[in-house]
């Protein structure tokens, strides 16, 4: 019994070693003059465990090819480590095969042919690595799973990811259409780097915060009014003493005195050089200033709301019919529109799915204007379903 264990262990080890790897488990590096193959494996073993290295060899075009035990390890070397330090040089780690990136095109009207979109991409020096295909709407019920959505997909080279804009305008049959792009990995359309979205972009750290910018704008708008108010005070003239004619002509006119019981506020006590009160103009100015501050707070609240919505709609497990760009566009395009049937059909054929999306995102908004708009939209959409 004691002799059978080594043979069994040896057999399993041999079986495991005979497992054929896939090409996505391979990485390549450029060779360095006067550097042995062992030096590459030793440098690699400082980053991953030696047991994770499966195959290694020199290949054509002065490269070293290494197969590791799993695709995940290869991905980590390519995307996280990116370089190996060998003989005082940083050697780039690349995949053996080009890993194309899947791009989803949203808000694409079905009447637009694939070749029109492909031509538009080629104008931006983006070469497609696959044909453009439709994406299903996601209905699982029998008889409905054939229905397509207003989304399409295509694969492009990783190098072309940075060339992708957030959206493009495409003209077809005398009609302009907006098409939106999104990738499987988070892509920042500000710095064109993968791994974060615009609101988390490091380049935003060098920009003034939104609320500070708005506050300075409010102050700038207030200052001229204050200057105008001050100049108005200084330009007022002292009243002249009444002449005998004016006295005689108005001597029968009653003079209305202020009520002694009226409480004076701070604004009522602001007086000009000639003793006249500026309570009315001051109150108007302060009211305007307060309105501006309230508007600033509302704008900041709306910005924070959209940050939450972006996080929800960019998560990998969401099943909503629209991304955050389309959703914001949908709210804007339906604003003040009574018959929203045509607009809704451009975003999703499933009206009930839009209603569910609105009801689930509603609690994440604190801005009253947007919440009211969503409530009105839900009523209009429910009315559409009822009429159908």
From TrEMBL:
<dbReference type="GO" id="GO:0008270">
    <property type="term" value="F:zinc ion binding"/>
</dbReference>
<feature type="domain" description="CCHC-type">
    <location>
        <begin position="188"/>
        <end position="203"/>
    </location>
</feature>
<keyword id="KW-0479">Metal-binding</keyword>
<feature type="compositionally biased region" description="Polar residues">
    <location>
        <begin position="224"/>
        <end position="234"/>
    </location>
</feature>
<keyword id="KW-0862">Zinc</keyword>
<dbReference type="GO" id="GO:0003676">
    <property type="term" value="F:nucleic acid binding"/>
</dbReference>
<protein>
    <recommendedName>
        <fullName>CCHC-type domain-containing protein</fullName>
    </recommendedName>
</protein>
<dbReference type="InterPro" id="IPR036875">
    <property type="entry name" value="Znf_CCHC_sf"/>
</dbReference>
<keyword id="KW-0863">Zinc-finger</keyword>
<dbReference type="InterPro" id="IPR001878">
    <property type="entry name" value="Znf_CCHC"/>
</dbReference>
<feature type="region of interest" description="Disordered">
    <location>
        <begin position="201"/>
        <end position="256"/>
    </location>
</feature>
């Amino acid at each position: 019994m004691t002799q059978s264990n080594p043979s069994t262990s040896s057999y399993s080890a041999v079986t495991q070693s005979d497992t054929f790897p896939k090409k996505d488990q391979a990485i390549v590096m450029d060779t360095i003059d006067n550097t042995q193959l062992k030096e590459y494996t030793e440098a690699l073993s400082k980053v991953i465990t030696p047991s994770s290295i499966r195959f290694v060899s020199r290949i054509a075009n002065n490269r070293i090819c290494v197969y590791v035990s799993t695709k995940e390890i290869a991905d980590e070397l390519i995307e996280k480590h990116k370089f190996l330090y060998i003989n005082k040089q940083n050697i780039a780690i690349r995949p053996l095969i080009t890993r194309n990136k899947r791009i989803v095109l949203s808000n694409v009207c079905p009447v637009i042919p694939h070749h029109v979109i492909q031509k538009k991409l080629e104008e931006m020096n983006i070469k497609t690595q696959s044909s453009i295909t439709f994406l299903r709407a996601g209905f699982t019920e029998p008889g409905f799973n054939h229905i397509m959505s207003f989304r399409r997909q295509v694969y492009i080279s990783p190098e072309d990811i940075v060339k992708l804009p957030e959206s493009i305008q495409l003209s077809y049959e005398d009609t302009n259409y907006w098409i939106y792009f999104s990738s499987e990995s988070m892509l920042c359309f500000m710095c064109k780097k993968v791994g974060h979205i615009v609101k988390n972009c490091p380049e935003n750290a060098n920009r003034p915060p939104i609320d500070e910018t708005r506050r300075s704008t409010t102050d700038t708008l207030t200052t001229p009014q204050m200057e105008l108010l001050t100049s108005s005070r200084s330009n007022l003239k002292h009243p002249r003493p009444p002449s005998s004619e004016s006295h005689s002509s108005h001597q029968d006119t009653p003079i209305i005195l202020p009520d002694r019981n009226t409480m004076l506020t701070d604004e009522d006590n602001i007086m000009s050089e000639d003793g006249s009160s500026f309570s009315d103009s001051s109150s108007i100015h302060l009211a305007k200033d307060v309105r501006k501050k309230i508007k600033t707070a509302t704008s900041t609240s709306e910005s924070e709301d959209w940050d939450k919505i972006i996080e929800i709609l960019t998560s990998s497990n969401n099943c909503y019919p629209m991304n955050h760009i389309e959703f914001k566009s949908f709210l804007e395009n339906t604003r003040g529109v009574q018959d929203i049937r045509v607009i809704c059909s451009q975003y999703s054929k499933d009206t009930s799915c839009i209603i569910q999306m609105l009801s689930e995102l509603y609690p994440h908004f604190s801005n009253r204007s947007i919440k009211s708009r969503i409530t009105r939209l839900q009523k209009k959409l429910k009315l559409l379903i009822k009429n159908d």
